[in-house]
Amino acid sequence: MADAPAHLVHPAAALAAQWSDHLQHDRRRSPHTVRAYVATAHRLIDFLGRYRGEMIEPAGLLDLNATDLRAFLAQRRGEGLGASSAARELSGARAFLTYAAEQQGRHAQLPRTRAPKRPRTLPR
């Protein structure tokens, strides 16, 4: 994993801001959903910048592979994220990557990564 300064503003961050507007106005998502999904997009972009050691352009999001996505989830799990939250994080990342592909006129080819297993619990 390459070391890149954490204070960099990646060009792909502008795409995350556009996605926020899209989720709010076009998709009419809850403000809580928008906040959570856009935060996931920014975390993914920042992670990729550190992981790859380069500025992340919108086009750079399209060549994401399963190893990159698993490394992102592993880092988030290492920060104490539970299985349910990691599944939501993966869902947000996939939705953002799909939006990124659509904005560039390409078909989204997302890495095949399964969400973490959630422990079975008893009904309340």
- Identify low-pLDDT runs: none
How many DSSP helices? 4
Beta-strand portion reads under 5%
Shape: globular
The biggest sheet amounts to: none
Please report the total strand number as a whole number. Answer: 0
Structural class assignment: mainly alpha
Question: In angstroms, what is the radius of gyration?
Answer: 15 Å
Number of domains: 1
Measured between the Cα atoms of the first and last residue, the distance is 43 Å
Overall mean confidence score, pLDDT? 87
> What level of helicity do the residues show?
55-70%
> H/E order of the elements?
HHHH
List its salient traits.
124 residues; single chain
Describe this structure in words.
This protein is mainly alpha-helical and 124 residues long. The chain is built from four helices and no strands.
In short:
By secondary structure, this protein is mainly α. It has helices at residues 12-26, 31-52, 66-78, 83-103.
Please write out the topology:
Blueprint: H1 12-26, H2 31-52, H3 66-78, H4 83-103
Helix pairs in contact: 1-2, 2-4, 3-4
